[in-house]
Amino acid sequence: MKKKLTNILHDTLDLCFREGYLSKAPLPEFVIEIPNNPDHGHFATNLAMILAGKQKNSPRNIAEIIIQHLLDPDHFILKAEIGGAGFINFFVTIERWYDLLSHVITLKDDYGRNNLGKKKKIMVEFVSANPTGPLHLGHGRGAALGDTLCRIFDFCGYDVSREFYINDTGQQIKTLGESIYSRWRQLSDPSYPFPSDGYQGDYIQELAIEIAQKTTLEGLDIHDAIDLLSELGKDKMLEEIKEDLAKFRVNFDCWYRESDLYSSGKIDDTIKLIKRKGMLFEKDGALWIRTSSFGDDKDRVIRKKDGSLTYFATDISYHLDKWERGFKRVINIWGADHHGYVTRVKAALMAEGIPEDWLDVLLIQLVKLWEGGAEVKMSKRSGRYVTLKELVDNVGVDAVRFVFLSKDHTSPLDFDIDLVKRRDSENPVYYVQYAHARICSIFRKAAIENISLPENPGSIYERLVLDEEIALIRKMAEFPSLIEEIARELAPHRLTYYLTEIAGNFHRYYNRHRIIGKNKYLSQARLLLSLGVKIVIKNGLSLLGLSAPEMM
RNA sequence: GCGCCCGUAGCUCAGCGGAUAGAGCGCCGGGCUUCGAACCCGUAGGUCGCAGGUUCGAAUCCUGCCGGGCGCACCA
To answer: Using one digit for the tens of pLDDT, what is the confidence trace for A154-213?
Structure first.
């Protein structure tokens, strides 16, 4: 609908320029908005106000000229009025609203789909938690965001790939092995020392017991034992992470192992490549990359004095590999505590001639958990933290995802577990789903009453005359452009607000008017309207990775 | 000290250049003999952190300050 109006305005401006009604000027960026105040029409634009500066004419005069020359062959606009300082308010012909509802019903699951992406290959790398411990709430927030972005990209015609990068080499994996080893020894000798930088959580002990049952550790040299435990522990953790994510409705297309960069020789190629570009130098026995030439504060070490590579080295190699795999765009989702890392990685990529905007890094802010009116303090050091699994088991996938997705990722998020746990009323999470279930229930009732939807509704739509009914259709009309904007802005939280609004509109309408009544045609018309709402809600929920229950 | 993010209703957050600043929760008061009350209706609650600037117009953009969070490793 917005697009249609945009076209009309463009055509009209062309005409005005051509015929000299307005002095020729470059087309400004104007906005078409949906006013809150019904008096301001179905749509409004600031076009005339934007134009005013260049035209040496008042906004209201320009608006008048535009309105007089509107090119509207399809009779889309019922009337156009000038409001306020020079807004043009448009009222759409009611038949066009019926057309839209009919369109929604025809397209069903595909309503809102677009071809913004044109099959372009895009990758979202997210979660990428170290396989040294269970997923926590921050990972959950990243998982929800990443997965939903992917669902939306897919809906927008991108060829999207979900990827999880596994840091399965280096010190932390060794520390994992040492931690498990120590806990295993402690089973027989409680005084056996635990490494000072070891992983504290109870899961380490559980791992130790579980592995010891299946594997013979006795008789192994301590180093061999730790190596073995590193391997087994890491695999086990990875398995759990996979399970937890699957339960959270997040499934990856690719699990990329850091260790593969070593075994495939990619990391060596990367270093050679950087060297060829003249970006490498040696200092103090270490190997450095000149990232400072590309906006970084300082140069960075990629090979330490002891000969081992830094994680930064493999990160560069990994991202070059993403580039070589042909992704046209890559989005990384990181915890906000990694923000210092962004410039560094981008600098390294730019040194290889990769454009700066190829990679987008979304930094998600902290999640705080509240229970019983107090913050649940978490610290990885002490191993005292609430895992994603615990939270999901406690309150359900839908509720957790909804809360994570209802805030912009740049805002810190307070998760009130008491509020979300409530399955009764008062929980914002169920509001949208309830509207869906309610509509399903109405259709069950309609079936019992033998009221079916007409094959060709045609004039049936004309029974929809109430302002609230047209407002509902207008709300449905917002959906496609909203999806586009969300894909562009990477802001899926807007979808939760939209769904809450359309659900609210429907609840209000439902409470005031009967869908199924004595008049068959009116009932059918309102059922069609309800069907449209149901379709939009279901499509929206599905993009958020939430279920659309038929009964609750 | 430098960099990034955040200061909007009692609480949690939307809005990010436009017409009277919104929602959920919480408070108070109403609504089920008819399609699901996990719902609806109504009341109260705001110098949009502060101060300047940009413009026809600023919660929104710019600058400075104040307050909070997070980073500034040959750590992972």
So the answer is: 999 999 999 999 999 999 999 999 999 999 999 999 999 999 889 988 999 999 999 999
CATH of the domain at A252: 3.40.50.620
Name the domain boundary from A47, A76, A92: A92
Q: Please, which positions of strand B sit below 7 A from a protein CB?
A: 3-7, 12-20, 22-26, 31, 34-41, 56, 69-76
Domain count, chain A: 3
> Does residue A323 lie in a domain region?
no
Specify the DSSP class assigned to residue A259. H
DSSP-assigned states of every residue in A29-97: ---EE--SSGGG-SEEE-HHHHHHHHHTS-HHHHHHHHHHT---TT--EEEEEEETTTEEEEEE-HHHH
Quickly give A257 CA vs B70 C1' distance in Å.
28
Tell me the per-residue pLDDT of A198-253, one tens digit each, with 9 for 90 and over: 998 899 999 999 999 998 888 899 999 999 999 999 999 999 999 999 999 999 99
Please give the nucleotide, over all strands, whose C1' is closest to the CA of residue A441: B36
CA of A152, C1' of B71: distance in angstroms: 31
Closest nucleotide (C1' vs CA) to A36 is B19
Minimum-distance nucleotide, CA of A31 to C1': B18
Give the mean model confidence (pLDDT) for residues A412-434: 78
CA of A410 to C1' of B69 (A): 12
pLDDT in tens, A20-45: 898 887 777 788 988 888 889 999 99
Domain around A511: 425-544
Q: What is the ipTM of this complex?
A: 0.96
Q: Is residue A134 part of a domain?
A: yes
Question: Of A383, A405, A420, which residue sits at a domain end?
Answer: A420
Return the CATH number at A494. 1.10.730.10
**C-alpha distances in angstroms, A171 versus A28, A167, A312, A351?**
56, 10, 14, 28
Find the helix or strand (DSSP H, E) in which A305 lies: none
Distance of CA A210 to the CA centre of its chain: 37
